[in-house]
Design goal:
The chain has a domain of 39 residues. Helices cover 55% and strands 0% of the residues. The radius of gyration is 26 Å and the shape is elongated.
């Protein structure tokens, strides 16, 4: 016992062989947000939206207004 604190959350996690989660309770929120983002990104773009994007790509740039 050379001045080492025992009973702290980090110490308890290491002694029990568990990894200490640096985000604590926010980890579950992060996992859910990542899952939602991954699901959203994997969805197809609706046809109407793809058509509008194509129109924007082919449109002539408007002149600058001062």
């Amino acid at each position: 016992m050379t001045g080492m604190k025992t009973g702290t959350k980090a110490d308890d996690g290491r002694r029990q062989g568990k990894a200490v989660d640096p985000l604590g309770p926010n980890s579950e929120i992060g996992r859910k947000l990542k899952q939602y983002y991954d699901d959203l990104v994997s969805e197809e773009v609706p046809d109407r939206f793809a058509q509008l994007l194509a129109q924007l790509e082919h449109a002539k740039p408007a002149g600058k207004k001062d």
